[in-house]
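Sample log: N-acetyltransferase.
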Amino acid sequence: MENYFAHETVCIDEGAAIGNGTRIWHFSHVMRGAQIGEDCVLGQNVYVGGKAIIGNRVKIQNNVSVYDAVVLEDDVFCGPGCVFTNVVNPRAFVERKAEYRETRVMQGATIGANATLVCGVTIGRYAMIGAGAVVTRDVKPFALMVGIPARQKGWVSRSGAVLGDDLVCPETGEKYRLINHQLEIIAG
């Protein structure tokens, strides 16, 4: 018995694994072997490759393709039209499926609308990739990245608020500290 919702226009290939409470909307396609966790939302026209892994509570907005070798950990947000790639030097006439590079988006990270992630990068926990940014290298946890190529502009909290010099979340009061150029939550 299916414990997820799929709009009548969705194509789900036999052998795809979809978790309880997940909702998949218009004109999406989930390939055989794809793994999608619980309580996810896949917007209109989302493609999920057969070797893609999507964690729990992930939200993927309209017009996103999650190709093979892309891993989205729990609580990741993918804005509309964001782009994942899986080959560094694609050619239509050269098959490079054995050369796919893993792209990993770690827990709680956000990818802004129309941002592009070049394959092989890791986006750290709770990082924020600004709309339209092009990520060409790994991103630190909690980093705020903008531009082409993406550069770090600051830090964000777990709730996504931009942190000031005091490194205190203006929304939650959660406190952070910098240790060796890495942001950490102060246990309290």
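Observation: The first strand starts at residue 5 and ends at 6.
Observation: The two ends are 44 Å apart (CA to CA).
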